Amino acid sequence: MEKQHDKHTPIHPKAKRQLQKSGATLINATEHRQEHETWDRRTFLKMTGLTALGNSMLLGSTPVQAFSPNALLNSLALDNCGDRILVLIRLKGGNDGLNTIIQRGDDIYYNIRPSIATTEANLWGLSDEYGMPNELIDLQPLWEGGRMKVIHNVGYPNPNYSHFRSSDIWASASASNEIETTGWLGRWLYQDLPAFLTAPPVVPPALQIGIQANMLFRAEVGNLALAISNPAEFYQIAQSGSLYETGLLGNAPNEQELKYVRTVANSAFRYSESIQAAYNAGNNQVAYPDNYLAEQLAIVARMIKGNLGTKVYMVSIDGFDTHNAQLDLHPLLLNYLGSSIAAFFNDLDASGHSPNVLGMTFSEFGRTIYENASQGTDHGTGAPLFLFGNELGSTFHGESPNLAEVDQYGDPRFSVDFRSVYTNVLRNWLCAPQEVTDHILGDELEMLEDLLPATEAPVGSREVAILLGHNPADVPGVAFELKFAIQQRGVARISILNKAGQAIRMVFNQFMERGSHTFIFKPNDFFLSSGEYFYRLEAGGRAYTRAIVW
Prior knowledge:
Layout: H1 29-47, H2 49-52, E1 58-59, E2 62-63, E3 85-91, E4 102-103, H3 107-112, E5 123-125, E6 130-133, H4 140-144, E7 148-155, H5 163-172, H6 184-192, E8 206-209, E9 218-219, E10 222-223, E11 225-228, H7 231-240, H8 253-267, H9 272-281, H10 292-305, E12 312-317, H11 326-351, E13 357-362, E14 383-388, E15 396-397, E16 416-417, H12 418-429, H13 434-441, E17 465-472, E18 480-486, E19 490-497, E20 503-512, E21 515-521, E22 532-539, E23 542-549
Helix pairs in contact: 6-13, 7-9, 9-10, 10-11, 12-13
């Protein structure tokens, strides 16, 4: 049962202003609990693997299979941004930033948090000015090795104190007064995979483990991530290729009906074979701590080392909504966080994969700077965000919360807009051109500079196919050899477009083996008059176009 504020327990006078914020405290415990329940029901119904996967893994009667590189298509070898991976670590519930990055010797901090402040004796130094609790000591090698960045006080204007709404704001990268129904990574993935529905890839563009809001990966055409509700579900898919057992069901009518439903559900996992191949090819080379976050990150490391090809992963750790008895839980969560991230990068180091991986933490908001009467904290505004990766440097960005200058609710003003971090990650890690980042995130905000090294998108990287061109075919009448190559076994479609770029004929639509192919195209067979046209190849979620005249 959630503990209410005890009117007999001393509370900092300025902390009373927190009670005026809608949805921030447990003063209305019933409404707060109902929001969590609604949030969890929505999460369960919409974010589990079965509801998020979409299309069947069977294309016709042929199962999609994993792609493994060979010499035939070495010209498509991924380089630079092509093999980069982003791993998001969500701190669900609102992490307390002041007890994560401590401004050493700050009298205001210790005065307003007499019971829950982290003492100097219980922290290790990031610098002379800042420290972290000893529960995060496992991150010290990453910091001292130049592989960790701290971004102070990340938030957004006019903050919302509801878990549900603020999570959507962070996922959609919208302003707090705008309702956006797609996620920032969903929009990026869809511009990269415009043929996701018509010629889908055999590798999940994104993979999220754990019950969590999936708006992050939602595009106009639906969710572009494979959402797996828990590690056990993942292992079931990786080891058997399906989620639900069907072989043990008998011939009774109810069992046959259940078998049919389970078979349909299993067929939705069109990525299962590529997951199996990566799982069998990869392995974990270090011991991970015994906690739920570590279990998720161990899966991600194995998939990366098995060369699954997924660009973005998201894992989560819950429990940061520390309204009461914060010292009982928050240090434990920080220990889980630090030890799990350290094991993850040690694992990637062991196989040489760490240079290609960037880790980023985020949470829907921070906590109040004042402790409440229940020795906890309520919903606040800005919080620190961390980046992990090789050759990042160990630096601070933004300004730490000014505890002496607060708004009408007693919250410090944020110093870094989270969307300016997203812009830098998209542009300098995932190599999205500025025009793309402006489209995805808007061009109103400046990119947070000097966060990641500037990188130009390499020409030809990350391609899953090549539209090689065409030449006259040695057959009677007007005919052309349309030549293309694909890296991934799957659907290949060729359409004819008019000069305005509108598709007017589908001339080829088949499930193809990986390799080089030629299609004999006869315009008369499709009642096309002479003129200027384009032909478009769709494969692996991407589209490629060339001009043609006859």
